[in-house]
Amino acid sequence: MKAINPTTTKAWKQLEKHYEEVKDVHMKDMFSQDPSRAEKFSIKWEDFYVDYSKNRITEDTRKLLLDLAEECGLKGAMDAYFGGEAINQTENRAVLHTALRASKDAAIQVDGENVIPEVENVKAKIKDFSFEVISGAKKGFTGKPFTDVVNIGIGGSDLGPDMVTQSLKFYQNHLNLHFISNVDGDHVHETIKDLNPETTLFVIVSKTFTTMETLSNATTAREWFLKSVPETEVSKHFVAVSTNLEKVEAFGIDPENIFPMWDWVGGRFSLWSAVGLSICLAIGYENFSALLEGARKMDEHFKNTKFEENLPVQLAMLTVWYNNFFKAESEAIIPYSQYLEKFPSYLQQAIMESNGKSVDRNGEKVNYETGTIIWGEPGTNSQHAFFQLIHQGTKLIPADFIGFKRSLFRDKAHQDKLMANFFAQTEALLNGKDEQTVVNEMKFKKFRSEEIDKIRSFKVFEGNKPTTTILIDKLTPESLGKLIALYEHKIFVQGVIWNIFSYDQWGVELGKQLASKILAEFDDDSVEDHDSSTRNLLKQYLNN
Ligand SMILES: O=P(O)(O)OC[C@H]1O[C@](O)(CO)[C@@H](O)[C@@H]1O
């Protein structure tokens, strides 16, 4: 892959100039000057309608952003990504979550070997196992069918399965799913306190099987289990997902109960692998397959569609536009579906762990901004929480609005209210409300002129706040797969433009190392080797 500092490209320089020309133009004027603006800046693909016309862009902006993508070598980078090259160069690994959802006839090589047959073998194992658990054919040690599944993992080994399971709760079977991630003992104890060891299945998920949180929680869960059950029964109740088969066996899990994954699957992109076992247990293999099929369709769209019509490319370039030219620091993700409650926090890991980098692919410190801060909550709750700041605060916060035409329980009255809010918010963020309108409205409501003068300025909305609307027919396993894959590829495109390695995460190591050091010091009761602030805090803790 080419390593190009984006700021040295012709397109970047043109974008800087272009930014000066458009930065103060109000989108309201863009809409009034061009009646076909909505058509020009929207993409209809399968059951997705993506309208990005409410962004501070013109046709020139779009062209220059796509020129930038070309100049940064996006096409070649995509070939390397899908082709299994070791694009995660700092760990010398391919990045092939796309292989996990490729068709079974595909041939995708890693180190000269087609990985698809192995992927299919693991899928078959997941399918059989989940069918046996769901149907009750597989039983706990007293012969009762399982009622509860506890997924123990953290980061990508938790957020993906947890988010998907929550998002597809409508499709869930009788099994109760629980997720334990935090090393906070209150998390594990609170979760297991009401469980019955006879009917509980533990799925320990850790790509490396060295993660302190997961191993501690798994150990605690096993100790809890062994309080009432002989050790010989562990194999009926504990399974694991990992690349590290030796470590899993050393932990005491039967090799038969290991669902393998591969180092070419990044943790935060792993829900499509055996890491999705809990998803499969919750919604069944057919629905899991549909999720993968949705992602596969998005992969094909991304791979084969020209940049102008390419959803991940367009969305990624919008982020570059705001991040690097408007200097917007964050982006909000607002799903208008309570089921998607966990989608923003899932994306926080996917996006921020990937693109929160400040060294470029040549090992040099970057001289431009990279990864944005991601945050969000479902609408309409978020409207009553932080929307005030988006509407009237001083910061520019581009927001993605994700909504569905149809609700799952088909309560039309609720759905209409929800969606009226969905459309109203992006319209309000676009148009705002000027002072004259405020005054007219107040006069109409018979406010006295002194009252009007006193509060008119507070009621003004500048508008011109960018939003992108992703309108999907219905929340299904397939449409969710498409949506997740859309953001995965958006991350990839951004990494190419910013010339950073999106698939490592060295930034999480230092804190882990220091935590191990401090933990050892707790045992020795010696905390001298620290800065004075940390030392005092440690003493406060130890004196407790
Ligand atoms: O699956 P593992 O190896 O336990 O790692 C869990 C998580 O820890 C990280 O390595 C760092 O947070 C993530 O990238 C990963 O998803």
UniProtKB/TrEMBL annotation:
**GO BP annotation list:** gluconeogenesis; glucose 6-phosphate metabolic process; glycolytic process
Subcellular location(s) of the protein = Cytoplasm
The protein in question is named: Glucose-6-phosphate isomerase
Protein family according to the UniProt entry: Belongs to the GPI family.
Q: What is its main location?
A: cytoplasm
Q: What class of enzyme is it?
A: isomerase
Which Gene Ontology molecular function entries are recorded, alphabetically? carbohydrate derivative binding; glucose-6-phosphate isomerase activity; monosaccharide binding
User: Which pathway, per its entry?
Assistant: Carbohydrate degradation; glycolysis; D-glyceraldehyde 3-phosphate and glycerone phosphate from D-glucose: step 2/4; Carbohydrate biosynthesis; gluconeogenesis
Q: Which reaction does it catalyse?
A: alpha-D-glucose 6-phosphate = beta-D-fructose 6-phosphate
Q: Name one Pfam family in it.
A: PGI
